Batch of 2 targets.
Target 1
Amino acid sequence: MTQFIIRRTFYALISLFILSVTIFAIVRLTGDPVTMLAEPGARAEDLDRLRAEWGLDRSWPVQYLTFAKNVFTGDLGKSFNYQMPVSTLYFQRLPASLQLALAATFISFIIGIPAGLISAVKVNSAWDNAGKVVALFGLAVPGFWLGLVMILIFSVWLGWLPTSGQGGILHLIMPSVALGWYFAASLLRLTRSSMLEVMRSEYIKLARLKGLPGYVVIAVHAFKNALIPVLTLAGINLVVMINAGVIIEVIFAWPGIGRLLYEGIFQRDFPLVQGVVIQAGIMIVLINLTIDILYAYIDPRIRLAK
Amino acid sequence: MAFVTEQTRAALAGSAPILAGLRRRWLRLAAGLPVVPLAILIPFVLIAVFANVVAPYDPTEPIPGAKLFEPPFWADGANPAALLGTDFQGRDILSRLIYGARVSLIVGVMGTIVAGGVGTTLGIMAGYLGGWVDQVIMRITDAWLALPALVFAIFLATMVGPSMWNIIIILGAVYWTRYARVIRGEVLSLREREYVKLAEIAGASSARVILRHVLPNVLNSAMVLASLTIGVVIIAEASLSFLGVGVPPPEPAWGSMLADGRSMLMVGDWWLTVLPGLCIMMVVLATQLMGDWLRVRLDPQLRNL
């Protein structure tokens, strides 16, 4: 187990290293970073001062080491617009995004898991076909468009729900449906295929042979085991939703990380954009590492495999 | 009838089963074709290709004499010159939707080709060459997969500045990782097959083995992945354009049309946002259905992908 954790952590560190090199290189290959660090219209001497201040007049390896050291110590630079460290801003906005992502996860659960379960139990029936249609629309209907259509129907025409902002539970309904929609479809697919796989296994046949009633077999024996990959996906989805809900947060004026990123793009606040991207990458690498270790803890086949 | 000899009659009789067989084959092919997705895709492709012929106006210029935000034909006070009304600059919505199809489809197809080309090449290299090449490619794949695709694309787009071709390259750079993963896995098992081993023993060079024996066998999977990627790429382009880092104005893209129309949603001018969204949805739906059809036809093993 220790050996597994060490190896897996090593891979995670490599991933972080490659990510940091990628971001570092892209910034430098696509133009002069100083022009992005300076506010538009800065004078030449200001540019030189900035270049020296940020160490951009030194060689690339030296620059990278400084960059890596800063990221490692949690220093993601300072936003122009807010005049505040990016990491502080990120963690200020995190609760709002977390709230939205949790609500969206809830939505994706109540749509995806029951629908996937029914599709698998009644495979090739009308229920299954209905599930397939839902899964298809989940991929084909962009969440941001769904959000706009919901605003039109429920806010503009019916006047039932508030159009934007953070507030009570009513404010949460539309953004979480719009954000959770796509993930509901992916959970549906996974629940279905995972259930089908489990239902074919020997212990389910045995449970049936023992004469257990069908719903006990499905609920106790099959569903519990089929749920493992589903919960994993949900965990990863949650982190993705926190960091990638940009458009939904923009549409509903949700004060989260996605909106922070959008403000960064809009105001050409380069340290902010870069910082949010790095932070998202770190979070996802860490959650993947955690999930892998938990998996290995539960399932010895994983930790003993080469 | 005198000139119809016995021989012709025999020949005709003989050809009847052949003709019937041909017809049957055609019918079977037609019955197997995915009617719904093709019925959606073909018109969109034709409209995109012939946008300059079909579109009544220049999509980037206001219609001369037209007001801003003219309503569509079904509403009161519609301008017969602009069937679907005009936008915030007095440009024809219908023409913008038509040219938007061109943008969406070009980005979708080209982005997929870039992603598929890069991913398939790297996947084959990793799987076939193995060793440190494999390690390097797969570590990069893992690392790039860690960034949410949209966030990564936004980052790249803010760096390189907006243009349609930049967006294509960016989306290619973001979405190649899936190909690399899947293709590498396939190549790993192909490498153990007899015919590949025999070709190697016969002294064929790596390049020859890859081109003659490995590549043709992974093309099916690459095609299936590609059909599923097009929709994803189209939605990603729409998202980038919506956020203002995609295809730059005044070029008509469905995503930026959605963003432009958003402010008018509150006063009930729904067609400005609903119509471009419907277009995105229909095209993506059709490509997904095409993908499902291809997947079942080309590679039953990929059905659960």
Note: The radius of gyration of chain B is 25 Å.
Target 2
Amino acid sequence: MNWLFVITGAMIGAPLRYLTDRAVQRRHDTVFPWGTFTVNVVGSLILGVLAGAATAGAASSSTQLFLGTGLCGALTTYSTFSYETLRLAEEGAGFYAVANALGSVAASLGAAFAGVAVAEAIWL
Amino acid sequence: MEAQRPKAFGEPTDPDIDLSAPVPAPGTSRRGGPARGQGQILAAVAVGGAIGAAARYGASLLWPTPADGFPWTTFAVNAVGCAVIGAFMVLITDVWAAHRLVRPFFGTGVLGGFTTFSTYAVDIERLAGGGHARMGLAYLALTLIAALAAVWSGVWTTRRLVAWRRA
């Protein structure tokens, strides 16, 4: 049963990443990968809220598997993030590569902290 | 942020979407039309994502991480996924004229679903909040360095192998 929660969540999260990436990348003509940046920050925010809720006992294990391991796990990606960073560096956009690497980590971490804080404000 | 897209190598910057792919005009499209093509891509991404996420979940069951321990399993999952996408993108761009659903299925779906940024970020928050700030900081830096080294190694090794085979 646990596997089903993970798989169902991932079957929503992965296409959501694809659609978000498409929608975001079409809106601008820069080399900066805003699409992947967006899904990683949003996914970290949701997982932060979920982690805070779980600590407060407000999220069941099935919710954590579906929303956390499945949906947020598949919505966010490290492989695409690192590949895009490498390509930026190779194409001579070194500033964008560094900005993407440090910006993604900083923004996602900030989102995770904010998510946990929001959850604690609600459930604790 | 504005910058032109210089082309040093053939591989695309964004492995998830192919914006250069022509979208057929309505009425003149291939059989089934663009809506059907888009539906097939979404299905390939969904199935691939489910496989990748299930593999990541399986890894977390095989090698569970204690609550206040270094998240080695997620670290390894992300590093492996990065090495594989590097090799995959070179193969699919320079070597293998693959079916149009291979990249959405494997690159966007399987590898995107296997690796995770949200668990990485929240695990750092959990470590910092639990009084293990130094471990959290080490995990933050090590994952970033390992992931970038892995994707670079994957791309570099595969390009060398391709060049060697063609020589």
Note: Chain B has five helices and no strands.
